Amino acid sequence: MQYAKCTQDGKTWEISKFSELESSLLEIKRRSLVCTECGEFAWYRRESRHGHPAHFCAHHDPECDLKVQYISSDEHRDDATEVEGEVESDDTIIVRLDQEQGGAIDVAEVSKPPLPGLGEGGKRYVLKDKNRRSAQQFTLRRILHRLVKSKDFRNSESNIIFYRNNEEIMLSGHVKDIVFGFNQIEKDLHHGKTNFYWGPIASARESSDGKIWLNSSSEYMSASVAIFEDIADDFKKLFEVDDLEDLLGAHVLVAGNCYFSGEGEGKPIIWCGTPNYIFVRKYKDPAIVN
Asked: Structure pTM?
């Protein structure tokens, strides 16, 4: 896109003028961009090292006249699992965090049940309790895919269990009670709490101490994901990140402690110290032809 609106100053910016902004001012404004037509989340991409010009992008409303189709970089995988990814009302979703492989196509099939008393084999199990509920095994990739695509899933009362390892539960509850969009984060409810959080990335940078910062926009509480320096290289390898700019516009799902900066008066920061607890859904930019 050639134009985007900045909610921070209320102005509609043309791309060449926006690109000329002083770097610190540009960094502030790029976290407050929306589509000029539909008002949905937008982001700015600098001129690439391969010579692709700077431009704006957005995740448009389906009815927006400016809509451009952004395809996930693993969209063929999502299409292949779309039907399998649907959750039946009585199903329990199981996520095995110790088997997460970042950018891999999917987790390996498990050869033994994820819980004592679960049926053998495959990715659907039957819980042998009095309700005989069934259970489906999902990956973080599939969870994030459903969150992005389905409002019903985001508000779902389907039970979900995140296993830290074969025996230890990290989080469990209804989807809507333990998985929160960045725009749902509230100090009174989430400060100091570990949950899964998700949302879009408006900017990304590496600080001098080696941490990677994935920053969302003001429309999403200006939330940031801080990836600790000791796993920064693992994160880049898992998600095939050569340039942090490639993460702009992506959606991220992460488990971590949420703390509000500035002694609780600033923005929410989700701290991630384990590469198995994060997934990034990148998108192919149609304006860039490799």
From this structure: 0.84
